[in-house]
Design a protein that fits this description.
By secondary structure, the chain is mainly beta. The protein has no helices and eleven strands. Helix content is 0%, strand content 57%. The mean pLDDT is 95.
């Protein structure tokens, strides 16, 4: 069983920054892709950014140029640096993991609120 533990959410003013972290733990798994999704109240969960094991990244258009995803393979950890945050970025952010055997896991979610 794989577990994902997220940290780094909180309240920030518009234009501010936050950094989310997500650490994967467990036995006998390899990482295919890790990423971040978010879900705002009344909306569907949407992709924010992903990073594959080879390092290639993918971003939603709405965060391109403001958010940066990175990974530390030695720590099985993925990060999301969020700059120039906007009120529309307010959501619960979920870490995701797709393993080498194509199993999917989700974190418990961390709240990000952008408000003055």
């Amino acid at each position: 069983q794989v577990q994902l533990v997220e940290s780094g959410g909180g309240l920030v003013q518009p234009g501010g920054s936050l950094r989310l972290s997500c650490a994967a733990s467990g036995r006998g798994f390899s990482i295919h892709t890790m990423g971040w999704y978010r879900q705002a109240p009344g909306k569907q969960r949407e992709l924010v950014a992903t990073v594959a094991g080879g390092g290639s990244t993918n971003y939603a258009d709405s965060v391109q140029g403001r958010f940066t995803i990175s990974a530390d393979g030695a720590k099985n950890t993925v990060y999301l640096q969020m700059n120039n945050l906007k009120p529309e970025d307010t959501a619960v952010y979920y870490c995701s993991l797709k393993t080498g055997t194509l199993s999917y896991y989700w974190g418990q979610g961390t709240q990000v609120t952008v408000s003055s």
